[in-house]
Specification:
The complex is a heterodimer. By secondary structure, chain A is mainly α. Helix content of chain A is 82%, strand content 0%. Classes of the chains: A mainly alpha, B mainly alpha.
Amino acid sequence: MRESTKMLIHYITGFAILITGAIHLIASNLKTLEWIKTTPLYPVSQGIFLATVLYHALNGLRVILVELMPGYRSGKIISYTLLILGVILFVFGSYVLIILFGER
Amino acid sequence: MKSRENREGIFGWLKFRGYSIEKILYISQRVSGVGILVFLITHILNVGLIYATTGILWEPPGLIGKAILIILGVIVIFHSLNGIRLTLVEYGFLVGKPIRAVYPYRMTTLSGKQRLAIYLVTTVFVILMYFWTMVAFHLLGW
């Protein structure tokens, strides 16, 4: 994938995080708006939040590490290590989401 | 080793003399991003593992947990505001038209709308920090 495509996805996920992250924070912290958690769309929003925030965070870390350790080989190693880490965290997070919201 | 001699590594981040204000924002964006990343991974693992084993949604207790949340709020607000500015700059919405380099030199690409966006980001950040201080006092129970 081209570097510009990765960064385009980075910016798109950034704006997705602004929305889904705000929903996550509002529903978890404001007592009067806790009914958001009971809507069926909330688990979907949480899943989107998990995926986008993991991509955004790990791509940001990849950019920093690639800049600190330039080179084709080290870039490949960094990218695939972070990809595997991201997949593991996503699977774990979706498992937690499924057991959290799966009952209803 | 020859290719490494000009690399400054992480210490190059700390050089601010002679750079414009964007360098400070750039380094703050990185540092806050790494901070959020550390919180994110520990948050997923903490909440997930404790919920999977004990069945309760865990929150960090005591003063340390509250301090973490307050600092997290500060860096998340900064990171998102500056991130919006960076996205707009990246796709050329705030970049001025370049002019010929004739004396007296003027930075048309960095000044103007782009500099205005920096002032806007800092102002909104300070205003939101004013509200966040109240939230922090409420959280701490003062």
